[in-house]
Specification:
heterodimer, A: 115 residues, mainly beta, Rieske Iron-sulfur Protein, globular, B: 845 residues, alpha/beta, FAD/NAD(P)-binding domain, Arc Repressor Mutant, subunit A, 6 domains, five-stranded parallel β-sheet, 28 helices, 40 strands, disordered C terminus, oxidoreductase (chain B), 2Fe-2S (chain B)
């Protein structure tokens, strides 16, 4: 385990502010997070596209690949596993994933950082 | 080898030689000078007669400019000095280290009394055709001396010009070189049915003038006479070898520059290609052997060892609407050979195969009336029969499948591509006809081998899957039908009933586009919003740093000073980088997502609307300034462009659609590089379809001529809707037409002749689009729910994305590239770009 949850939960927005199968960007402790609401639940990953360096992943198309919930980078369409952050098209490429949950109608995010 | 290369002649073969050399000599070791006698650059002489069908001079153009090639038109060579290695023209002298003669042929005029009279023409150049057309005006009787291939083309031309037409042929049949007696008889029935009278087995003994001194009649050897106010002589061609003869080069027994199998003359620095070359003593009058000589010499000049592969004299053409083909030993000259013939007077089809004495090897053949089996048969000459003879001769050529061909069989004779070449390209990953064309050049000239390319893909087991992605097993076209017929309006229902899973970045935008094309409301309404690609989701174009660009519509490229000032003010106030686009509008770059509504508020208030630069949709209809101002213009090109752009704005399609309108044949709007292009004529509009720039540039094909504005719009309406309904995902109109069974002819049948009974439906669909259009951006600004999307951070809407920063370059903001692309090595440019604080815009209302 080289990941651990180190920070507290931060309330970001009401759940109904998230469109189903679409993302938004949030700013949590200075980190740009891409937050998605899908039929499989809420997911949070870094908003920064590791291939281009631009902060755009929240604007990608949400979908599935062989049952895995995914988002495709809007710049060059590399597809990421929303559960793990791994890129399904480029071996060795990944984005950081974060925790997301809904409490009392509010979406909360907790950053994960390498230690 | 390198140095000065002079090419005398810029005909089809001369041009092909230069293209072939440039492809093999990318470093430009040869400095090339081309001397052309005509004032036109190379054009397609094979399709010369199409000039009378409304095809313009520019449609026939074959000339491609190359770096390091100097083209001197209207400057014929007058002498070759072999000692000094200099070619002389009326203007000057050109030194050569290598000289290529591509002087072609001239039309042979038999020494008949009266051949010099006014009204007697040959049929060789565009100037000849222009002169024939002018002289035909107001005359009624025409005649052609010569019933060969060129003679019948000339006869058709006279017919199209409204003249009665007589053809006089010395041989006992039409097209004596290509066709046997029975085939000639079938051909004659077709030709005479079109009102062309034929006189076979007779010679022209004199051309007689009328009282005005111009030609009036032909006298024939059987004592009869034929009325003729205009005479075309098409009695054969002779090689242009006078320069070589004067320079002391040996000639072939029937003329032509004598060259060996490497196409080199007796002078090691002088080569000859095309019709003027007597290869091992024989001149070839067809373009395919000419192209072969061009390739040989280009190869030799870069140190290759190519030799002339032998002439393929096979011919397939449509003469007066009749398919005629001849290949191999068409006349059965091989000792002991056997004929298999098939004659069907009902369908008026004649076919003959010439087989070896053991009936196992195909030697040649003749086809009249139906030449669909020609590509496979021609490729099988010299090899075993690909199927039983009767199956091969069946009217639809059903037995002829390219899969039975040997690897050495030539599939594309225009570009000398064998089945082995095609199979290798398929093994190398080419999975469709378009890829094969790009990779091998097969099918890129006359196109007759395209059906074989499909058969070879099938034979190689390349399953051309039409499944869209893992979520849908059907193609975009089938999906469109499902959505349309079943009235499905949501992605979730479509996936549940006709697919699987949650969709992806491939199928979701396709469904979004289909729903938009069917006019199902705003593209950001309800579930549709989640299907849109980021550009459509924010109605702006995503750039590399995560910022967006904004393109207001400027119909036809026409804009008032007031609106120009508004664009300038918006760009200044929001500190946007501005650039003029190729589609005659203005692109504003560097807008953050939360700035888009503020920018559009200003633009919409000033009367602008969305330019749909972000969508797979109609982009622009570009125009030249037209007759309003231009002294050459013949129609109001700007007015039409504005009308078309307003009619089709917002139309979603499988890919972007571009258009242009030119006000005269000079074509300043570059309409032929567009999906649909319109060029003005004196009496109306010519419509071209299927062009594009981009990765694989393609000129649009002439679709219809001299249309009224009303008819033009009807045809474009149907063209666009039919494209939207039936094209594949991300298939532009060019690829769509290329992939269509029957190609342009099929498209004409569907949208001009209504062969599928679709036209009323297509017209109604476009009418719905036009009446339901509303500006997407105005609709967003009026709706708080839609506006909510345009925030930087859902929990910090006042904080702009800190990763977007700009530097100044040439006085304008540009992204700081090192900042957003850590993976890229810093290039020299970035060293000069220091981030600057541009601050947040001060929005003035």
């Amino acid at each position: 385990m080289n990941h651990s949850s180190t920070l507290d939960w931060t309330a970001v927005c009401p759940l109904d502010r998230l469109e189903p199968d679409r993302g938004v960007a949030a700013l949590v402790d200075g980190v740009q997070v891409a937050l998605f609401r899908t039929a499989d639940g809420l997911f949070a990953i870094d908003n920064r596209d590791p291939v281009s360096g631009a902060c755009v992943l929240s604007r990608g198309i949400v979908g599935s690949r062989v049952g895995v919930p995914t988002v495709a980078s809007p710049l060059h369409k590399q597809v990421y596993d929303l559960r793990t952050g791994h890129c399904l098209d480029l071996p060795g490429v990944a984005v950081a994933r974060h925790d997301a949950r809904c409490r009392d109608g509010l979406v909360e995010v907790r950053l994960r950082r390498e230690v | 080898m390198s140095g000065d290369l002079v090419v005398i002649g810029n005909g089809m073969v001369g041009q092909r030689f230069v293209d072939a050399l440039r492809a093999r000599d990318p470093q430009g070791r040869w400095r090339v000078t081309v001397l052309g006698e005509e004032r036109r650059a190379a054009y397609d002489r094979v399709r010369l007669s199409a000039f009378f069908d409304g095809v313009s001079e520019s449609d026939l153009n074959l000339h491609t400019p190359h770096d390091g090639v100097r083209l001197r038109l209207g400057e014929p060579a007058t002498a070759i000095d072999r000692d000094r290695r200099v070619v002389t023209t009326a203007v000057g002298e050109y030194h050569y280290d290598a000289l290529v003669l591509a002087t072609g042929s001239y039309a042979f005029v038999p020494p008949v009394p009266g051949a010099e009279l006014p009204g007697v023409f040959v049929y060789r150049t565009l100037d000849d055709l222009t002169a024939i057309r002018a002289y035909a005006d107001g005359r009624r009787a025409g005649a052609v001396i010569g019933g060969g291939l060129l003679g019948l083309e000339a006869a058709n031309a006279l017919r199209l010009l409204g003249l009665s037409t007589d053809v006089v042929e010395f041989a006992p049949r039409l097209m004596p070189v290509q066709v046997d007696q029975a085939g000639g008889a079938m051909l004659r029935r077709y030709v005479e049915e079109l009102g062309v009278r034929t006189h076979l087995g007779v010679a022209t003994t004199a051309i007689r003038p009328g009282p005005d001194g111009a030609v009036a009649a032909l006298e024939l050897s059987d004592g009869s006479a034929v009325d003729a106010e205009l005479v075309v002589v098409a009695a054969g061609i002779r090689p242009r070898d006078e320069l070589a003869r004067t320079a002391g080069l040996p000639l072939g027994p029937r003329g032509g520059v004598l060259v060996d199998e490497t196409c080199r003359s007796a002078d090691e620095r002088i080569w000859a290609v095309g019709e003027c070359a007597a290869v091992d003593g024989t001149c070839h009058g067809l373009v395919a052997p000419g192209y072969a000589t061009a390739e040989v010499v280009a190869d030799r000049l870069v140190g290759g060892a190519a030799t002339f592969p032998g002439a393929d004299t096979a011919t397939k053409l449509k003469l007066l609407g009749v398919d005629v083909a001849s290949f191999g030993d068409a006349h059965g000259a091989t000792p002991g050979c056997l004929d298999v013939t098939f004659t069907d007077p009902a369908t008026r089809v004649y076919a003959k195969l010439v087989l070896s004495d053991d009936a196992r090897t195909l030697l040649g053949g003749v086809l009249v009336g139906d030449a669909s089996a020609y590509p496979t048969l021609r490729a099988s000459v010299g090899g075993p029969l690909p199927a039983a003879p009767l199956a091969l001769l069946a009217p639809d050529g059903g037995g002829a499948d390219a899969g039975a061909l040997p690897a050495t069989a030539q599939v594309c004779s225009c570009n000398a591509v064998t089945r082995g070449d095609v199979d290798a390209a398929i093994a190398g990953g080419c999975a469709d006809v378009a890829a094969l064309k790009a990779c091998t050049r097969a099918g890129t000239s006359c196109g007759s081998c395209v059906p074989m390319l499909k058969q070879l893909l099938d034979a190689a087991g390349v399953a051309q899957s039409s499944a869209l992605c893992e979520h849908f097993d059907v193609s975009r076209r089938e999906l469109f039908e499902i959505v349309q017929v079943r009235g499905i309006r949501t992605f979730s229902r479509l996936a549940a009933e006709h697919g699987r899973g949650r969709g992806c970045d491939i199928c979701k935008p396709v469904v979004a586009s289909i729903l938009a094309s069917l006019g199902t409301g705003h593209v950001l309404d309800g579930e549709q919003a989640s299907l849109q690609d980021t550009n459509d989701h924010f109605l702006a174009n995503l750039q590399r740093d995560g910022s967006y660009s904004v393109v207001p519509r400027i119909p036809g490229g026409e804009i008032t000073p007031e609106k120009l000032i508004v664009i300038g003010e918006v760009a200044r106030d929001f500190q946007l980088y501005t650039k003029i686009t190729g589609g005659q509008r203005i692109d504003l770059f560097g807008a953050r997502v939360e700035q888009l509504p503020q920018i559009w508020r200003r633009l919409v208030d000033a009367g602008f609307e969305s330019g749909h630069a972000y969508g797979k949709a109609l982009r622009t209809v570009k125009s030249c300034v037209g007759e309003t101002w231009c002294r050459y213009g013949v129609q109001d090109s700007v007015g039409l462009a504005v009308a078309l752009e307003l009619r089709y704005r917002g139309l979603r399609a499988p890919h972007k659609i571009k258009s242009a309108v030119s006000g005269c044949a000079r074509e300043c709007a570059e309409a032929r590089s567009k999906d649909f292009g319109i060029i003005a004529t004196e009496t109306g509009w010519n419509l071209y379809v299927g062009g594009n720039g981009g990765f694989r540039p393609r000129h649009a094909d002439l679709f219809a001529t001299d249309l009224s504005t009303e008819t033009l719009i009807t045809l474009i309406d149907r063209f666009l809707i039919y494209y939207i309904r039936t094209a594949d995902r991300l298939q532009r109109t060019a690829g769509w037409i290329e992939a269509m069974d029957g190609g342009l002819d099929h498209l004409r049948a569907v949208i001009v002749d209504d062969s599928l009974g679709l036209c009323a439906d297509l017209d109604a669909a476009m009418a719905r689009h036009v009446s339901s259009y509303s500006d997407e951006w105005r609709d967003v600004l009026d709706d708080p729910d839609r506006l909510r999307r345009y925030t930087s951070f859902v929990n910090a809407p006042d904080v702009p994305d800190p990763s977007i920063t700009f530097a100044l370059e040439r006085g304008q903001p540009v992204p700081v590239r090192g900042h957003t692309s850590p993976a890229r090595p810093e290039d020299a440019d970035d060293q000069r770009r220091q981030p600057v604080a541009l601050g947040l815009p001060e929005v003035r209302r």
